[in-house]
Design brief:
It is a single chain. This protein is mostly helical. About 85% of the residues lie in helices and about 0% in strands.
Length: about 90
């Protein structure tokens, strides 16, 4: 069980780091009027575990904060993932 937890922590760290990089890259691209990261890609990385990091970086750099889809959608994804983690924890326990 300890190995699984360690792998999960590493996975979440890597996905969160990639989510932050994509979000910052999209912000820079928006400023420079260059090709952007698709919203589908941003939501995908949020859904596979980078949601909390992405949400926090969006708030801190002021990116996509006027888009209700992101300001509501990503926190909902994070809450759903947290609930799922609690359910899985109690099923395995």
């Amino acid at each position: 069980m300890n190995n699984i937890f360690s792998l999960l922590v590493i996975y979440i760290f890597v996905i969160s780091l990639l989510s932050v990089i994509l979000t910052v890259k999209d912000k820079i691209s928006a400023i420079r009027h260059r090709r952007r990261i698709s919203e589908k890609t941003l939501f995908f990385f949020s859904a596979i575990g980078g949601g909390l990091a992405m949400y926090l970086i969006m708030l801190s750099i002021g990116h996509k904060t006027r888009h209700k889809r992101f300001m509501i959608g990503i926190p909902l994804i994070v809450v759903a993932q947290a609930v799922l983690c609690v359910v899985i924890y109690y099923m395995v326990k």
